[in-house]
Write a structure and sequence with these properties.
This protein is an alpha/beta fold and 296 residues long. The protein has one domain: Rossmann fold, CATH 3.40.50.150. Strand 7 and strand 8 form a beta hairpin. Strands 3-2-1-4-5-8-7 form a 7-stranded mixed beta sheet, with helices on both faces. Strands 6-9 form a two-stranded antiparallel sheet.
Length: 296
């Protein structure tokens, strides 16, 4: 066997192992799924197949009790889609959907993944703003009532969700920045060119507080039903779809402070700062008070 043939055989073996690992991963997710109860705390239902912090389990828990109208999702901020909040819905529940990311390389990787022909998935490359989000969604052929929307763009999350009108999701998952605390309804000022890694060297100045997102949710007709244990994502259910045994929570009841230490020093290296030190770094950074904005 020639050297090139040997390399090709090795690549084929690695791909076979990778495919088997994916099947095992999905199988473990199905085992977890069978153990889910239809009542209880969101955080108790967490499990991870493709999500980062247990969101797969929470979403499956909600779908057991929330009668979403259509098995369609939209998720943005997915990178290459190997880690996401909707991939398990795609491969396990046979949902259809749209994913969006700003990197041409990442989107190209999604389109090369076998899930792109095995399932009804669309991938768009775009830097999302509140000016273009509806046009991107509508261009994909998605509109009206859908099952789930997941927002994680590390920046203008509040402003983009506020702008979305092309779709009406039954469940919304939005990343919040717990460093802004449980009391202040604040978000970064809108900047269509905002990039978290360059907005502030610390890498922790981005997004919106949980109170700000809850205020927006209420305006858009959604109930806040909880956060994940990691303190990164908040979950909202459309009011008319929320069952009576799924309680709407106050911010005080549902807030979870993130423990992840991802702050950076001026040299770009992880700084491992405490919560107090992170708060001090953010003190004085420009923020928009949503409470004041709503009352105007």
């Amino acid at each position: 066997m020639s050297f090139i043939s040997t390399i090709r055989a090795a690549i084929g073996t690695l791909q076979s192992i990778e495919n088997r690992c994916k099947l095992i991963q999905q199988g473990l997710g199905r085992v977890e799924l069978r153990q889910l109860h239809s009542v209880g705390d969101l955080k108790d239902s967490e499990f991870t197949v493709y999500s980062q912090w247990g969101e797969d389990g929470i979403i499956q828990f909600l779908l057991k009790i929330v009668p979403v109208p259509n098995r369609i999702f939209v998720e943005f901020g997915v990178e290459d889609y190997t880690e996401s909040n909707t991939r398990f819905l795609l491969v396990n529940d046979n949902w259809a959907g749209l994913v969006i990311d700003g990197s041409p390389e990442k989107v190209a990787a999604i389109k090369k993944d076998e899930i792109y022909w095995r399932h009804n998935l669309k991938a768009e490359c775009a830097f999302i703003t509140r000016e273009n989000i509806n046009e991107i969604i509508e261009r994909s052929g998605i509109s009206g009532e859908i099952g789930l929307l997941s927002i994680d763009i590390d920046g203008n999350d509040y402003w983009v969700w506020e702008a979305i009108s092309a779709i009406s999701p039954g469940i919304v998952v939005v990343e919040y920045n717990s460093r802004f605390g449980p009391d202040k309804a604040v978000t970064i000022p809108y900047d269509p060119r905002f990039v978290r890694t360059t907005a502030h060297y610390s890498n922790i100045y981005y997004g919106a507080s949980l109170p700000a997102l809850c205020l927006l949710a209420k305006r858009k007709g959604y109930s806040f039903v909880g956060c994940n244990r990691n303190g990164s994502n908040a979950f909202f259910v459309k009011n008319e779809l929320r069952p009576t045994d799924l309680r709407e929570l106050s911010v005080t009841e549902g807030f979870v402070a993130a423990k992840i230490r991802e702050s950076r020093g001026r040299d770009g290296q992880l700084a491992f700062l405490s919560e107090v030190e992170e708060a001090s770094l953010l003190d004085g950074m420009p923020l928009v008070e949503i409470l004041q904005r709503v009352s105007q």
